[in-house]
Request: fold
Amino acid sequence: MHTVKTRKQRCIVVGGGVAGIAAAVEATLQGMEVVLIEARRYLGGRARSFRDDTSGDVLDNGQHVAMGCYAALRYVLRQLGTEHLLGPDDPVPIVFASAGNERDRFDPYRLPGAAGVIAGVLRLRSFSLAERLRLLQRGVLAAFGPRPEGKTVAALLERWKQPQTVIERFWEPLVLATLNAPIESADATLLRAVLRRAFFGGGKSHYLLVPRVGLSELWEPLPAWLAGRGGQVQLGLQAVELLRVGDRVIGVATDDGEEIRGNAVIAAVPPKALLRLLGPESDAARAAAAFETMPIVSVYLWYDRPLDIPPVVGLWGTTSQWVFDRDRLIERSDDSRRQFPGHVEVTISAARHVATQPAETIAALADRELRAVFPSVEPAQLLRWRVIKERAATVLLTPKTISLRLTPHGSIAGLFVAGDWTATGLPATLESAAASGIAAARAAARLHR
Ligand SMILES: Cc1cc2nc3c(=O)[nH]c(=O)nc-3n(C[C@H](O)[C@H](O)[C@H](O)COP(=O)(O)OP(=O)(O)OC[C@H]3O[C@@H](n4cnc5c(N)ncnc54)[C@H](O)[C@@H]3O)c2cc1C
Reply:
């Protein structure tokens, strides 16, 4: 009897961000041979890290956090053997602070699951008991009640008659952090998804996870992982055109003049890059063209002494929104610590206005605000700063644009679409990217079985 060795189906993944990484991992697990091509010389896309030459510190292109409910991301990292680097059993409580010396602490980890979240909200001292109870009631209703279709978060909060202080101190920070959008334009169904999955998802869903290493370390094993399973990663290679036979996509042409052919192409790229590949005429391209983007500005500051501040702080009443004490959160070398003992990152999301300002103005503002909020920082000397403006950090998902998100299996045969901006039902996040990649890979594998 002869054994017939069937050739594996080949899946070409375009884009080595989180969506492409997830697609490559899942397509491999589904039995396909994967070729991942990434235009840049590194993996990770909008979630990457690099070494800062002066301090020796590893910096991210912007501080990222994950949540326990990031099941798709964690599944991918588990395959790559890096899930533990997210600190999944070591969640970080959030301290809130203002320049008026107000302090509060959201620590939802004393009880398991949603009970912990409820207890955490009930212990917030900045709101009256009536405000806390109303906040919880509204949170539960929003999570499990009807989907607030066609509404912005601001319209929803107005309908709920939420007091201004609760909006400014709870809802706004939550929406800026999770949706990267002002409440006036953020789509309310995405807030519902966050509440439902993160706050009321049960188990450890509500854990705030801060990677303990530079982001790139999370994806580092991918090339070897793929190579061990018959696949490959090609960095510094850009897809410039989709190859078609009739209406079917059969591969990609690359900027080195070569062609790569396969049974399926997964385009795991942002909308504008998809538009370039598709040309302006298809439905998918028209949808891709409709998305605006929103910046995130990250400010790294180094001081001559460790700053006596909590690891994660949400700031009230300042332009700076979040502060992360990188000295406590991230592995640093002894040399970096000796030279630059204090090291923090300040995040400003939905930063359209801030992103237009010069870097030195932004750094000075972050330093000033930090000193105003934490008197303990006052004696510290700022030794160095570095500002990173990610002008297209995420797409802006509004009630108008949300319905334009593409599904993994679009209208073009042989082509599958992934990316944080596609129709995952989630805000444009690491989790949305990972979920979209997995969905696209499964759709591709199903069709080619
Ligand atoms: C500063 C900042 C902070 C953030 N904070 C958080 C956070 O705290 N938590 C969270 O969950 N999310 C956060 N996000 C969002 C998160 O980073 C993104 O949602 C996610 O990384 C998007 O992944 P992606 O794979 O969809 O897209 P991308 O990362 O953009 O990947 C697309 C890749 O495709 C490549 N590419 C494009 N065109 C081509 C082509 N023609 N050929 C080959 N390659 C191509 C690009 O070079 C890129 O590497 C943040 C984003 C930023 C920028």
In short: The pocket of flavin-adenine dinucleotide is lined by residues 14-20, 37-40, 45-47, 61-62, 64-66, 238-239, 268-270, 273, 296, 298, 390, 393-394, 419-420, 428-431, 433 (CB under 6 Å). The chain is about 35% helix and 20% strand. The first helix runs from residue 18 to 29. Residues 10-50+213-291+398-447 form a domain with the FAD/NAD(P)-binding domain fold (CATH 3.50.50.60).
